[in-house]
């Protein structure tokens, strides 16, 4: 199942993705956006997914601003902490209105409606797969356990547990192992953030996703930010952005 998630809070995005992957293990996140502007551009340039999960309050407006300005040829599931927008939501292409904190049972019930909406959204049966909701205990979330690395003529695999952190540099993405070796990675940080186990990895900022065991030291920085010293060491220790600081502290405490 191909999905797009529009959510401006990183902890909420990770919790939602975790529940979705428990219900539908073969899910593919085509895109994750935190703003109306970013989502508008993406939907203009890309093929529609099977379903869109959309928070109502976004970084630069509301979900209704997006729906009123952009054609989205896919069913929408609203995910919000507020119940007062339910009537407005169901005037749109919505098939669900899930209140945070989202329950797995509510998500399963919403996804089961997708088959009824195939014709409404002109989905071709042979090109789109409507998920089958398991009747038995769902499998665990399918986070990445290893990565295939290609450099020159060499091909090897690296276990996720052996990676200290991922980082971007000069528009390329790299993984650095706990032994200090650096390898190129085909996926960008946004894609990696969606497939890494959030219990083990956290997105500090636009340049770094780190594992818990890579933290050597932490110090308070200006405006509630945190500067993190990594091992293996980097030239300039990354700073946790202010918008991610609260989520970072929750992650450290094992609350995500």
Major sheet characteristics: 5 strands, parallel
Number of helices: 7
* Separation, N- and C-terminal Cα atoms: 25 Å
Summarize model confidence as the mean pLDDT.
84
Q: What is the β-strand count?
A: 17
Helix content: 10-25%
Uncertain regions spanning at least 5 consecutive residues: 119-128, 135-140
Give the strand line-up of the largest sheet: 2-1-3-6-7
What is the molecular shape? globular
Which structural class matches the secondary elements?
Answer: alpha/beta
> Which percent band covers the strand fraction?
25-35%
Helix and strand sequence: EHEHEEEHEHEHEEEEEHEEEEEH
Query: How much is the radius of gyration in Å?
Result: 19 Å
Could you walk me through the main structural features you see in this protein, from its secondary elements to its overall organization?
The structure is a single chain. The chain is of the alpha/beta class and about 260 residues long. The protein has helices at about 10-25, 35-45, 65-70, 85-90, 105-110, 190-195, 240-250; strands spanning about 1-5, 30-35, 50-55, 55-60, 60, 75-80, 95-100, 145-150, 155-160, 165-170, 170-175, 180-185, 200-205, 210, 215-220, 225-230, 240. It has a 5-stranded parallel β-sheet with strand order 2-1-3-6-7, sandwiched between helices. It has a 5-stranded antiparallel β-sheet with strand order 12-11-10-14-13, with helices on both faces. The longest helix has 14 residues, at about 10-25. The relative contact order is 0.11. Mean pLDDT is about 85; it is low at about 120-130 and about 135-140.
């Amino acid at each position: 199942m191909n999905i797009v998630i529009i959510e401006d809070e990183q902890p909420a995005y990770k919790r939602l993705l975790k529940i979705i992957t428990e219900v539908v293990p073969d899910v593919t996140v085509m895109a994750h956006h935190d703003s109306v502007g970013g989502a508008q551009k993406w939907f203009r340039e890309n093929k529609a997914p099977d379903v869109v999960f959309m928070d109502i309050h976004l970084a630069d407006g509301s979900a209704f601003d997006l729906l009123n300005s952009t054609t989205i040829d896919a069913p929408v599931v609203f995910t919000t902490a507020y119940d007062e927008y339910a009537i407005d939501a169901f005037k749109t292409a919505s098939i669900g209105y899930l209140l945070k904190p989202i329950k797995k049972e509510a998500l399963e019930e919403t996804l089961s409606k997708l088959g009824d909406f195939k014709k409404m959204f002109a989905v071709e049966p042979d090109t789109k797969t409507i998920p089958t909701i398991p009747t038995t205990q769902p499998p665990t979330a399918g986070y990445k356990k290893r990565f295939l690395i290609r450099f020159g003529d060499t091909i090897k695999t690296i276990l996720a547990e052996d990676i200290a952190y991922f980082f971007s540099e000069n528009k390329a993405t790299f993984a650095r192992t706990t032994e200090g070796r650096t390898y190129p990675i085909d996926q960008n940080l946004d894609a990696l953030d969606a497939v890494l186990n959030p219990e083990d990895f956290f997105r500090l900022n636009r340049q770094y996703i780190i594992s818990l065991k890579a933290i050597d030291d932490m110090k308070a920085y200006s405006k509630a930010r945190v500067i993190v010293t990594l091992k293996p060491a980097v030239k300039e220790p990354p700073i946790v952005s202010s918008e991610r600081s609260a989520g970072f502290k929750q992650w450290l405490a094992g609350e995500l």
